[in-house]
Amino acid sequence: MCSPLSLVALGLVLLAVPGLAGTRPQEVRINKCCRLGEFYNVTDRQCVAGGIAKWVPRIFLPAKGQLYKDLGSAPPFMKFAEQQQPDTCPRPNVYAVDLVTLMGNGSLFLNQKHVLVPVPDYCIDEKVALVCPERPTDLAGAGTDGDGNGGQMDSLQAPEKTSVVLRCCGSNFAYDRGNRTCSKLPRGHELFDSRIVNSPYVELSYGFPACKEHAIAGAFEESRLQEQTGSVTIDSGKIFASGEFCLEHVRDDDRTVYVFTCSEHFQPASVPIAKQDSRLVLYSAGLLISAIFLAATLATGLLVPSQHHVLHWRCQTHYVACLLVGDLLLAITQLSGNSITGPACTTIGK
């Protein structure tokens, strides 16, 4: 049986050796945009009553390498300061809570941008997070202010981001055609640290467009990117709006940037058939011969007035007329090839 003195000694040893007793996590204070029992209304940009009790978004604990299991609640070492919106920018950006992850050290991870935001630059709430834009470093001063001290460019001097463009895989990743997925680039690879878009007015986020299957629509040229809207035009002239496409390098390819989009948004061009192909001639001739006999059948029926009142004659007449029009349009399509464009192409159903 242990004496009281030995228990005290054991306690002192456990306190002195962190590996035995374990260290108590340091308290982390998080800014909550509104008071408890309230939530942030994005439309009115203000707090309104009606918040739920278990409002905390998902939390990742780096020390354990896993998400906090009690979803909606926070670990005991996390404390929330109510009604504390960021004051480091005049108008913070709004992110849905499913696009952010709260880290155990108090920083906020933006899932689509792969950026960690410090505590003073954001607040979190039941449905949204208010995040101040990243303050770009002063390139002219090599990351220093005018006095040579470490600092950041004033937000009023930085170019305002006017549009958002998706990068498919993320920084230092490229698309692997063979595995149909993103793969990490080793340091020293020619595409390592490569830029996708050079415009200072375009903000990059990460991820593919939301769809089941993706396809490469063509090569990307920055001159065809609309900085104001984030839309892009490919070689065929088709325009993809921001969010309908993403940009990425392809591994083991040249430094070309490609436009990825949903398969339903992009239909590859049909394989052209040479006009002198014998199949084209035979198919068109067969359709024309069929149209001639259909016209003769229709004319014969019209020359027999005694049958005009019979129901099956009327059905047959309409059926033959539809076949005649269809064969004529198919013959015209085959003979014209790609020469029909515009409204005429749409009219005949090419």
From TrEMBL:
InterPro entries: GPCR_Mth-like. It comes from the Eukaryota. The keyword Signal applies. The chain crosses the membrane at residues 280-304. Residues 1-21 form the signal peptide. Keywords: Membrane, Signal, Transmembrane, Transmembrane helix. This is Methuselah. It comes from Anopheles epiroticus.
